[in-house]
Amino acid sequence: MKFFLYPGAFKPFHDGHYMLLKRYIETYKNDDDSYFMIIVSSTPREFITIDKSIEFITNIVENKLGSKNVIVYPDANPMRACYTLVGQSILHAFNKDVYTIISSSKGNDNKRFEDFYNSYNEGGKYYSGINKIFKPNDIILEPVLLDDGTPINATTLRNYIKENDYDGFKSGYKHMLSDDIISENELKVYFNALKK
Predict the structure, then answer these.
(1) Is 132 helix (H, G, I), strand (E, B) or coil?
(2) For 64-75, how does the pLDDT look when each residue is reduced to its tens digit (9 = 90+)?
(3) Residues 69, 70, 75, 78: is their CA dihedral positive or negative?
């Protein structure tokens, strides 16, 4: 089986996260042995709790993206969880499962993937004669932009929530709205739930 690990805080989960995950799911949709593990940080970010994060992500991914092979779960350190999962798999040499990290091909995402990949390949500090990490097809995604032209990020969206600026917040969900992944009413409910 192929496991696509997607670690992050996701507070809140936004169009940038959605578009990257969608690209991976669509690329591997005909591979029944592909599983997507979204590892959500269990540490709150300001006023956004793990419960609010997991409920929204589960609804978007399982119910709307239609991927039956998705697991969403919390961990205090999502990136460390990725290393732990692969380490446990290596202990069972007969296990043919392989892993990768969902990441864009740019910036910190790419570095995180390269560090992970190199750690488990020959010469890497966790290499034990079994290559458990694979490189996915090249999946390039330009940054998703807010209405002001800046790349979307969770910090800006949290500021919109604090300022009670729904229109600014909504600009971080244009793709989900246009794909009918979420309705305007559902987004307003989510926005109001995050404010509490």
Answers:
(1) coil
(2) 776 678 889 999
(3) positive
* Tokens 């991927």, residue located: 67
Q: Return left, alpha or beta for 129; rule: phi > 0 is left, psi -120 to 50 is alpha, else beta.
A: left
Summarize pLDDT for 99-134 with one digit per residue, the tens.
999 987 766 878 888 999 999 988 999 998 888 899
Which residue type is seen at 181?
I
DSSP notation for 110-128: HHHHHHHHHHHSTTSTT--
Nearest partner of 162 among 53, 54, 46, judged by Cα: 46
3-state secondary structure of 184: helix
pLDDT at residue 47 in the model: 87
pTM: 0.91
Instruction: Supply 148's token pair.
Output: 């002001």
Q: How confident is the model at residue 140 (pLDDT cuts 50, 70, 90)?
A: confident
Collect all residues with Cβ–Cβ distance below 8 Å to 183 and sequence separation of at least 6: 177
**Residue 12 to residues 19, 153, 184, 191: CA-CA distances in angstroms?**
14, 9, 17, 10
